[in-house]
Design a protein that fits this description.
homodimer; 370 residues; mainly alpha; two-stranded antiparallel ribbon; 75% helix; disordered N terminus
C-alpha cells in the first residue's frame, strides 16, 4: 500500500494560509460544479428517461453515479478560466459539463473491461443488470446491463456537449474552445480503442505505454480541461502555452500515479480494486518492469502475465517482482520530475489565485492515494 | 416475401417527367453526400486512428461500412434545406453529417442486439473480431470486436456533430437547428434504451410499440432531418409545421414498413436477415397480431414467442399466424393511410423542387423492399 508520508514540499512561495484558503475555495467549487452537473443531468433524464419504471430507476442510478465523482476535470477547466476571467456562474456550468463527458468515459470503460466496481460501489452496468433482474423482465440481465451502460454513456456524451453550449457563455466564447473540446473527446475515444489491445501478454515499451496513457488519460484529465477553460476565457497565447506545459506534465504524472495505484493502491481508498494485474493491463508500470528486469525476472514476469487465472499469492509475487526490478521506484522518480517541472512553469504570468490552485492540484494529482 | 406490384399511384400532380428528373437529382445528391461524409470520416480517421496496423484496418472497415448506407437521413435534411434556400455545398456537408450519426446508431445497435449481418456484409463488430483474430493478439476476439464497435460508434457520434458545425454554414444558421439536432440525438439514444426491454415475450400494446418506433426510428429518419434542414435554411414556422406533419406521418410509415420487412422481407434485398421473430423483437406487427388474435391464435403466438429456440418451420408458422390474425393487412392499411395524409400536406406552400422530392421519398419510404 502506498504511504504519502514522503510527499514533497509544495512550491516555496506557497504559505500555509494560501494553501488553506485555496483548498476551501476548490472544495466550494467542486460542490457548485456537482450541483450544476447533477441539475442538468436531472432535467435531461426527466425529459427523456421517464417512459418506464426501469428507465426512471436507471436515471436515478446514473445521477447517484455522477454525484460520486471527484470533479477533477471540471476543476482544471475552471482554474483555466480564472487565468483569464473573473468568477462566473456560466463558467462553472461550462466546466461542470466535463463531468458528464467523464461519466461517459468511465461507464463505457467499465463495460468494455468487465469491471464490476467503481467509485466504491457496483459499476453502473452491474447496477443496471441488478435492476433488470429485480424487474422480472425476460432475457439476459447481464447483457441488458451492458447495453444499458452503453446507452446511458452515449446520453452523457451528447449531454456534455449540449451543457457546454447551453452554459450561458456567449457563442464566441464557446467557439474559441471547441477545437480543443473536439480533440479531447476524440482522443478520449480513440485512446480507448488503443487500450483494447493494450494487454500485458504483449508487453509494449514503456514509451508506448506512456504515449497511450498520455493520449487516453493525461491529456483528458489535466491538459485539455485547463486549455478549454483558458480558451473560454480568452487567455493570450503565451499564457496558454504555459498551461499546456503544466497540463502535459501533471497529466502524465496523474496517469503514472494511477498506474501505481492500479497495482499497489488500497481499494478502500481508490474505490476500485487494484486489479491492473488481474486484467493484464499493460500499464506504464508493467511495461517499465519488463524493460528494467534482468532475464530471469523477465521470464518470471511474463510467466505470471501469461497465466489464465491469478490467485492472491501470485498477484503478491508479481507485485514484489515489479518492486525488485526497480520499476516502481523509477516511476516515482518520473512522477516527481514531472511535478517539479510543472511547478517551475507556474511563474508570475499566471494570476495568483489560479496559480495557487494549480500548485495545490499538482500535489494532489501526483501524491494522491485515491 | 413482399411484392411491390400493388404500390399506389403517387400524388396526381406528379408527372413521369417530373418524377424522372427528381430521381436523377436525388441520386446525384446521395452520391455527393456520400463523398462528403466519407471524405470527412477519412480525414478524422487519418488523424486519430493511425497508431497501429489494427486501428488502421478498423478505420478502413468503418469507411467501407459508411459507404454502404442509403443516405436517407441526409436526403431528407437536404430536401428540408431546399424548402428555404438554394443549392449549397455547405448544406450538402451539413446534411451528410447525419450519416455519421446513423453509422453510430447502427453499429451500437448491432452490438447490443448481437446482430451479425448489416448492409449485406458482416456487422462492423463482427469484422473487428475477425481483424483481431487475424492479428494474433491475445484475449477474446468477440469481446474485442464488440468493444471496438462501441468505440468506433462513439467516434461517429462525436464527428457527426463536429462535421455539422464545420460544414461551412455560418454560426447563426447552425444555431437555429441545434435544438432539433440535440433532441434527435437524445431521442435516438433514449429510444435504444426502451428497445432493450422491448421483447416479444412481454408483448406491449400496439400503441406502445408504435410510440417506441416513432421515438426511436420514425422521428430520427424523417421528421427531425427534415426539420433540421429547414431550420438551417431559416424556413418560416407555417412551412416548418407542414414539414413536421409530413415527417411524422412518413416516419411512422417508414418504421411500420421496417417492421413488416423485419418479419416478411427478403434478406437478399434488405441486406440483413428477416430476424425480428428470432430476436423476439416486440415490433408493431407482433404487438398488433397479439391484439387482433382470437384467444386460440394468441395462445399459439405466445407459445412461439416463449420458445428458447426457433427453427425455420416454427418461424414460418409464426409468420402465417400473424397473417391469419389480419395484423399484416392492418399494418399495410396503416402505412397507406399515413402515406396519403403526408402527400395531402404537400400543398403549394412547399416549393416545387422539394415538394416533388418529398413525394418521391414518401413512396420509397412506404413501399420499399430494402
Amino acid at each position: 500500500m502506498i504511504r504519502n508520508s514522503d510527499a514533497p514540499a509544495v512550491a516555496p512561495a506557497f504559505s500555509t494560509v494560501d494553501r488553506e484558503a485555496t483548498e476551501v475555495w476548490l472544495a466550494q467549487f467542486r460542490a457548485d460544479a456537482r450541483t450544476e452537473a447533477l441539475g442538468y443531468l436531472r432535467r435531461r433524464c426527466a425529459e427523456h428517461l421517464g417512459h418506464s419504471p426501469l428507465s426512471r430507476e436507471l436515471a436515478g442510478r446514473l445521477l447517484d453515479y455522477a454525484a460520486r465523482g471527484k470533479y477533477v476535470r471540471s476543476t482544471f477547466a475552471y482554474v483555466g478560466w480564472l487565468c483569464g476571467a473573473a468568477d462566473s456562474p456560466a463558467a462553472v456550468r461550462a466546466a461542470a459539463s466535463l463531468e458528464l463527458l467523464h461519466t461517459f468515459a468511465l461507464v463505457q470503460d467499465d463495460v468494455m473491461d468487465s469491471s464490476t466496481t467503481r467509485r466504491g460501489v457496483d459499476a453502473l452496468h452491474v447496477q443496471a443488470a441488478q435492476a433488470h433482474r429485480r424487474s422480472g423482465l425476460s432475457g439476459s440481465a447481464e447483457r441488458f446491463g451492458e447495453s444499458a451502460g452503453i446507452v446511458l454513456a452515449d446520453l452523457c456524451l451528447i449531454w456534455s456537449e449540449q451543457m457546454l453550449r447551453e452554459s450561458g457563455l456567449d457563442g464566441a466564447q464557446v467557439r474559441r474552445a471547441l477545437e480543443s473540446y473536439d480533440s479531447m473527446r476524440t482522443e478520449l475515444a480513440a485512446g480507448q480503442l488503443d487500450d483494447l489491445y493494450n494487454d500485458a501478454r504483449d508487453v509494449p515499451s514503456f514509451a508506448t505505454a506512456l504515449d497511450i496513457a498520455r493520449r487516453k488519460s493525461g491529456n483528458y484529465t489535466v491538459r485539455r480541461p485547463l486549455e478549454i477553460g483558458a480558451e473560454l476565457a480568452g487567455c493570450e497565447p503565451g499564457l496558454l502555452d504555459r498551461l499546456t506545459g503544466y497540463g502535459t506534465a501533471i497529466g502524465e504524472a496523474f496517469q503514472l500515479r494511477d498506474d501505481v495505484l492500479g497495482i499497489f493502491g488500497d481499494p478502500a481508498l481508490t474505490g476500485k480494486p487494484a486489479d491492473d494485474l488481474h486484467t493484464r493491463k499493460a500499464s506504464t508500470v508493467v511495461a517499465l518492469a519488463d524493460e528494467m528486469a534482468d532475464s530471469r525476472q523477465r521470464r518470471d514476469l511474463r510467466a505470471l502475465a501469461g497465466r489464465s487465472t491469478l490467485d492472491r499469492a501470485s498477484a503478491e509475487r508479481w507485485r514484489q517482482l515489479i518492486v525488485a526490478t526497480g520499476a516502481r521506484r523509477e516511476v516515482e522518480i518520473a512522477i516527481e520530475g514531472r511535478y517539479s517541472a510543472a511547478i517551475a512553469i507556474l511563474d508570475e504570468s499566471v494570476p495568483e489565485r489560479p496559480r495557487l490552485a494549480l500548485a495545490t492540484l499538482a500535489q494532489w494529482c501526483t501524491h494522491r492515494s485515491s
